[in-house]
Design brief:
Elements (H helix, E strand, L loop, with lengths): L1 H20 L8 H22 L6 H25 L12 H22 L9 H21 L17 H32 L6
Helix pairs in contact: 1-2, 1-4, 2-3, 2-4, 3-4, 3-5, 5-6
């Protein structure tokens, strides 16, 4: 049931956001990236379960962990950094649209992992795989940026850590390094919680 609910909620959030921004470039924002990853994962799992060929294997566990970590980062960064610092003007007057991708979907995924997750299914080595995913995302953004691409509101960067014009290469590299450290820390916390028998399962 959770697979179906999360698939629907994440799809609705994506549709609302693409309709709001009216541009496919929205996919290069981490919020949309993480929510698309979520929809693809849960919809695929749903289809596999319906067809009776679903199997809980190492790839499934890694991908579910990646979706969880990605959406936790989306939730934390948006609600505890971007909102307090006034970097959410794109969602002015569109509170519900924002809630779908920044609150509803992340919370549902966390609940799913609490309700249906198994203790000690996450390994510390998964952090490297999850880091590769966010590094690939950053590289795609940088390639698009250096090819002359533009983002919402005509900016040539999606987030401050890619704002080379104002901060320069060295400071942007430093910003991104800090983000990777923070991301790794969140990954570690998720794994530590999973490896503690908090749910006695």
């Amino acid at each position: 049931m959770m697979d179906l609910i999360i698939s629907i909620v994440s799809l609705v959030g994506l549709i609302l956001n693409f309709d709001l921004f009216k541009s496919p470039v929205g996919i290069l924002y981490y919020t949309i990236f993480s929510n698309m990853l979520c929809f693809i994962f849960y919809f695929t799992v749903l289809v596999l379960k319906i067809t009776g060929i679903f199997n809980t294997n190492r790839l499934f566990i890694k991908m579910k962990g990646l979706v969880l970590v990605s959406l936790i980062c989306t939730f934390l960064i948006y609600n505890f950094f971007m909102v307090p610092t006034g970097q959410v003007s794109a969602y002015d007057g569109h509170f519900i649209v924002s809630c779908f991708v920044h609150i509803f979907t992340p919370i549902l995924v966390v609940l799913d992992c609490i309700i249906n997750g198994k203790n000690k299914m996450l390994e510390y080595t998964y952090i490297l795989d999850w880091l590769i995913a966010i590094i690939i995302y950053g590289m795609i953004v940088i390639i698009y940026q250096h090819c002359g691409g533009f983002f919402i509101d005509g900016l040539n960067y999606p987030y401050f850590n890619f704002n080379i014009d104002d901060y320069g290469y060295l400071l942007c590299i430093f910003f991104n390094f800090l983000i990777l450290v923070l991301y790794s820390f969140i990954c570690l916390i998720v794994i530590l919680i999973n490896r503690k028998n908090i749910s006695n399962r």
